[in-house]
UniProtKB/TrEMBL annotation:
InterPro entries given in the database record: Transpos_IS5 (IPR047959), Transposase_11 (IPR002559)
Protein's name in the database: Transposase
Organism listed in the record: Paraburkholderia ribeironis
Lineage: superkingdom: Bacteria
Gene Ontology biological process terms in this record: DNA transposition
NCBIfam families: transpos_IS5_4 (NF033581)
Compositionally biased tracts (Basic and acidic residues): 57-72
GO MF term (any one): DNA binding
């Protein structure tokens, strides 16, 4: 099993050789040729990829491309992978890697393949329909309500019943 350092070294090699986009594009082309991609609906989300926060390495520093981010009540150090997935097949069609402190909604435009009618996301994409880079795209955004708002609404309904 690979440790975090091995994965980070592999990621750097892919970036240095400019292979990340090339590999991803080749997989996408192969899936399209087989008729497995690009339907009408997309799911978008981001996930945090933890990186070692330690400075006990040869350079005595943290990876400059990694940053802190808060999810819920916990802090994480690393990067984010923003992903666009075909809602019908579950196949990934878009992928963007950023520092951990980059907001989910700021990468929404890069997660669309261009033929969507509807896009589904979690509350991290609230306000996506108001972003300038997405105004011209005829996509219906379905964004989940924030958990705390859902709990408040449930409590209010409980009291009124």
């Amino acid at each position: 099993m690979s440790d975090a350092t091995t994965l980070l070294e592999f990621r750097r090699l892919l970036v240095e050789q400019d292979l990340t986009r090339k590999l991803f594009d080749e997989v996408g082309i192969s899936l399209c040729e087989r008729g497995l991609l690009m339907k009408e609906d997309t799911l978008v989300d981001a996930t945090i990829i933890e990186a070692p926060p330690s400075t006990k390495n040869a350079e005595r520093s943290r990876d400059p491309e990694m940053h802190q981010t808060k999810k819920g009540r916990e802090w994480h150090f690393g990067m984010k992978t923003h992903i666009g997935v075909d809602a019908e097949s579950g196949l990934v069609h878009s992928l963007v890697g950023t520092a951990g402190n980059v907001s989910d909604v700021s990468q929404a435009y890069a997660l669309l393949h261009g033929h969507e009618q509807e896009t589904f996301s979690d509350a991290g994409y609230a306000g996506v329909d108001k972003r300038d880079e997405l105004r011209a795209k005829p996509v219906e955004w379905r964004v989940a309500a924030r958990a705390e708002r859902s709990r408040r609404c449930a409590e209010l309904r409980w009291r009124t019943c």
